[in-house]
Amino acid sequence: MRSLKRRNRERTLRFTVKATSNARSDSDAKSSDSQTEGVLREWRESAFYWQKHLGTIRTMFQPVTEALIKEADLMEGETVLDVAGGSGEPSLTIAETVGPTGSVTHTDAVAEMVTAAESEAQRRGLTNVTFRQCAADALPFENNSFDAVVCRLGIMFFPDPLAGLREMLRVTKREGVLSLAVWGKSDLNPFSYLITNVVAGYFEAAAPADPNAPGAFRFAEPGSLARILTDAGAVDVKEREFKFDITAPISPEEFWELRSETSGTLREKLATLGRLQANSLAQEAQEVVREYFSNNQMSIPAQMIIVTGRKP
Ligand SMILES: C[S@@+](CC[C@H](N)C(=O)[O-])C[C@H]1O[C@@H](n2cnc3c(N)ncnc32)[C@H](O)[C@@H]1O
Q1: Domains in the chain, number
Q2: What's this model's pTM, rounded to 2 decimal places?
């Protein structure tokens, strides 16, 4: 079935393989371990808010889920692995796509995220999803287990994305598909930069962040994720710029609540401000986004990148 689907699949961009060194010194390994612990701690502390806002998050990024389903060409009866599935998406939507004869395995490195996803699956009466807490670079599954593997807005936070992709390919069946969604550049995404710019006005300018460190825009440069997926051993790698509107039935005030609670970086910064300053920042943030709201309906243009490849 997969090879037939493959022949029908349009192919766009191809990327040449560049060797990537895996050698790490002891001190590299230590600083990378503490960075990983920091990233996971931030996600553990965010899980409560991702559960609180999961309905809105699901609505906001539904077009991305649909794009992943289309790019991976998911069909009824297939077995799908979702890596870094957070509070349940795209796992739970895909569970409906593959139906009762198919199955989805939701995974995330953070136990609290897995619990949130599992409660939501129960609430929605979904019985074809299983849940495992695990890191992307140590997936507890046999080789060649899944027809397809997806990851929505997760890979940019992995300590070693190449190791994560190799692991995802290992558990994919031959000719199976891997489909990944990441943010496009920050300056193309008002969802991000409008708030970042307001916040920047309240703090001393920070040293520029390492573009290769875990973070939302780590793979925003076109071609960067496709190249690493090729390095990991995928074939027929293609990349698609994905433009859509982030919509949800919320007010600017509710948007600010969601944005300021679900981002660990933002929560940490806001916690250092006094009450007056925090209130003034919140007011300013709500004012700059107001043009994207009408009658309590948000619509913010967004740009992401969808990268898809196949296990040879
Ligand atoms: C931005 S959230 C995306 C969640 C979900 N896929 C979505 O689109 O709503 C990123 C997720 O990556 C998870 N994560 C971070 N590092 C991870 C790793 N090394 N392995 C697996 N999951 C990881 C976090 O716990 C968090 O749930």
Answers
A1: 1
A2: 0.91
Distance, CA of 117 to CA of 43 (rounded, Å)? 14
- C-beta 306 within 6 A of ligand 1: no
Does any domain span residue 14?
A: no
Taking the CA of residue 135 as reference, the ligand 1 atom at the shortest distance is: 20
Q: Which of 89, 105, 113, 304 to probe ligand 1 with, by most ligand atoms within 8 A of CB?
A: 113
Per residue in 162-206, pLDDT tens? 999 999 999 999 999 999 999 999 999 999 999 999 999 999 888
Report d(CA 78, CA 80) in Å as an integer.
Answer: 6
What percentage of the chain exceeds 70 in pLDDT?
90
Average pLDDT over residues 122-134: 98
Reduced to 3 states, what is the DSSP secondary structure of residue 201? Answer: coil
Give a yes or no: residue 256 inside a domain.
no
Q: Taking Cα atoms as reference points, which of 59, 62, 57, 66 lies closest to residue 87?
A: 57
Q: At residue 161, what is the residue type? A: P
CA of 192 to the centre of ligand 1 (A): 18
Question: Is 204 domain-assigned?
Answer: no
Give the domain range for residue 239: 25-187+215-247+302-310
Label residue 247 left, alpha or beta by phi (over 0 means left) and psi (-120 to 50 means alpha). beta
Tell whether the model's pLDDT for residue 150 goes beyond 60: yes
Which CATH number goes with the domain that contains 229? 3.40.50.150
Phi and psi at residue 157, to the nearest 5°: -100, 0
pLDDT digits (tens, 9 = 90+) for 261-277: 999 999 999 999 999 99
**pLDDT value at residue 2:** 55
In single-letter form, the type of residue at position 127 comes to T
Q: Tell how far the Cα of 157 is from the centroid of ligand 1, in angstroms.
A: 7
Q: What is the mean pLDDT of the chain?
A: 91
